[in-house]
Amino acid sequence: MTVFSERIGGWDDWGGVFRSVPAFAPLVESILRREGLPPARIENLAPGTNAVFRAGDYAVKVYAPAESGMDRTDGPQTELFAVRRAGTLGVSAPKLIAGGFVEDRYRFAYMIMEYIDGVAFTEAVKTMSGAEKTEFGRKLRAITDRMNTPCERFNTADPLDGGDRDRRWEPYPGRFRAERLSRVQSRDYGEKVFVHGDLCGDNILLTPGGGLCLIDFADAALAPVEYEHALVAVELFGLDPALLRGYFGDYSVAGLTEVCFGGLLIHEFGGGVVASRVGRPDTFQTLGDLRERLRERIERGCDAW
User: Cα Rg for the chain, rounded, in angstroms?
Assistant: First the structure.
């Protein structure tokens, strides 16, 4: 007997249901029973790509099935590796409780982790002073420096091999896309390191004791370090000077421009981040346009947003 009744025939179907408590509560409850965990009220947690819910002391993540159109068959494996590695490195992350697959209407991979009581950076930053922002940036840089180190390959993701990254640039003019592809294919990016891959405001929690806890490692990969730094600077910080000073220290406009420029061009979310944070896709005819726009934003700081 199946407990998940919604139809998933593509990304639109998944996107319309993955945050629905009524749709997922029976499935989450069955997963808790399967793992011998107590029943609890099912509540939404921060939106992402997968379905994530709170159930008492636990966070239950149900990964998008193959029918959603997402090619993330190694998502659970990635997160398992990343969480264990974080613990080894002394990086605060939720403790893994259980994980596996459940055969229902679809084959769902799932993972159960401890629920972390904290405030998402997205909310916390709204009341931070300049000094507090700078201190947050320092703390986060100390964490990413521990994480962004070489390790064994743990999934099939390759930031330099197109896929979703190329598709996210499709709204951009043809000349821009051609220049981007040529740069990615010809540039020597050097050493690849472990990156979280999605350090957005909802994936960093400020805990009551003043620490930072990272969650949602599903987009972790081996990539050039600028992959991590660019998303932090542009998407997480919005190029806020106080946050940038904490994270990058005494940075130069030219140097930070190149970090953001190079990292966004290879990032899985790069095309979307540029569109939401820097400018409409049709306003970029060449890579030079993007580099110059980033330089202007960094030079002007928060006033540019």
Answer: 20
pLDDT digits (tens, 9 = 90+) for 51-79: 999 999 999 999 999 999 875 667 788 99
CA separation for the pair 38, 36 (Å, rounded) = 7
Report yes or no: 275 and 281 within 8 Å, Cβ to Cβ: yes
The pTM is what? Answer: 0.91
Residue 26 has pLDDT above 60, yes or no: yes
127/133 Cα distance (integer angstroms): 10
Which residue range(s) make up the domain with 201?
119-304
- Least Cα distance to 92 among 209, 233, 243 occurs for 209
Asked if 180 and 265 sit in the same domain, the reply is yes
Structure-block tokens of residue 188: 């020597």
Six-digit token pair at 89?
């490195």
Q: CA-to-CA distance for 26 and 159, rounded, in angstroms?
A: 36
User: What's the CATH number where 88 sits?
Assistant: 3.30.200.20
Whole-number Å distance between alpha carbons of 202 and 181: 30
Q: How many residues does the chain have?
A: 305
